[in-house]
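Quick entry, no commentary yet.
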Amino acid sequence: MRVMVTGGAGFVGSHVVDALVTRGHDVISLDVIAPPAHAGPPDYLRQDVDHVDADLRDLDAVRAAVRGVDSVCHQAAMVGLGIDLNDVDAYVSHNDLGTATLLRALHERPFRGPIVLASSMVVYGEGRYRCGEHGVVRPGPRSTADLDARRFEPPCPVCGAPLAAEAITEDAPLDPRNVYAATKLHQEHLCAAYAREHGGPVAALRYHNVYGPRMPRDTPYAGVASIFRSALERGEAPTVLEDGRQMRNFAHVRDVADANVRALESGVDGSFNIASTTPHTVGEMADALARAFGDRAPRPQVTSGYRLGDVRHVFASPAKAAREFGFRSTVTFEDGMRAFARDPLRAAQIVASRTPVAISPSTSPATAMR
């Protein structure tokens, strides 16, 4: 199968390329390889695939790249919470316009093969919560007053009682609460509209906190695991926001790449959580990574700081992906964190927030949350 991988030089995309080649597929990778995601062409780029150095918003370049492809794995995106709303136009341009340009080029063929989209857990907003009296409820965004007072847990929106967090499933209401999240949901909607027009399957894989080798370091768009890892390498204590008890799934990038290949080969349609089986807190992740650095490594410092774009708890059930295309995470949290302490990271170039960024995924969803 001839597969085009957008963002194929990036964190997740490059692992997807590796997994596809291992499975015997013919791959074309399209990536602009620009800051802040890359300081230059990464040394892990394969010599046995076709690389196209182009911006996904360049319609002529994308038209040429999609000729003859049987399937598309769309990883390219500007990720994370970024710096502030000065990034809003860049997010919309790279994520939404980039996706629209890709879909237009496919429409002109016309293309009816499978599309796999790298989506994100952030489309859910807050996760799933249950009130002892009112059952499953949807708390609203947390207020600045509550966060300043260190009331981090969202209360029941009906009675104000404490809530119990539960694993979220793909049929949950979608409630994006930051710019990045809004663009990821729009990508899902654009791809779904294309599928209705042409009849081919679209699988939106909602990644949950991806980590592993080739994550970018030292950039506002890097993932939480990379931020903690960089601090430990500098001999500094990782800074954990809120009280460190935010629940998340942490999925190893090799498992995420395997999910992409399985989804492409099976031609599934719909949305799927791509997550580890067992959730952990952000504090547990910071502790595990610090332990992996050895006894002399500084211990994580838990603060009461917060980011308004963050949500409290969001972790998932991966049962649908397991049932429909056989995905199961294989890298345990403990093994993954031990390896991540030694995994090579990718050098990134810091640029001003208004400068256009690379179309190349550097993470995982909820990347900027620490």
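second:
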Amino acid sequence: MQKSVVDLLNAIYEPDFLGCSYGFRPGRGQHQALDEVGRAICRRPTGWVLEIDIRSYFDSIVRSVLVEMMKKRVSDGSVLRLIQQWIKVGVIDDGQRLVSETGTGQGQPLSPLLANVYLHYVLDQWFEEVVKPRLKGEAYEIRFADDAILCFQHKGDAERCWVFYRSGSRSSV
């Protein structure tokens, strides 16, 4: 059943996802992401690179925020309720059911898509709509799931982006 919902959500979100996102998307993968990293570093004016690897990403997604993000594109309340039930199901560890208040339930067919939806809004759109317009030079993002490479033409642009990213201030650079 999750696979059917994933197919439905892919049809909704694929047109929204930016070209910088390669992980767990139809027709895209790690090889295309690596090719794009090579192009950005070797053929474009890239002098500075920031590497992002979000620690415990799938376990730290704030569910209420994710659901609010999904409500922007998914209007069917029964689909939203089903997704909420799936992400709250928990895991079995040594015969014990463990339930967390955050995360998307790694290992579920739905989790990678939900992770992409979350990062689409909090990283990809932020970089494209907030960061890039305020830079002096060119910049590129290449993301595969919770790993991303941010390439910058100028050192100052990279430093400003890093400071604001690390501080959690996503509104301005």
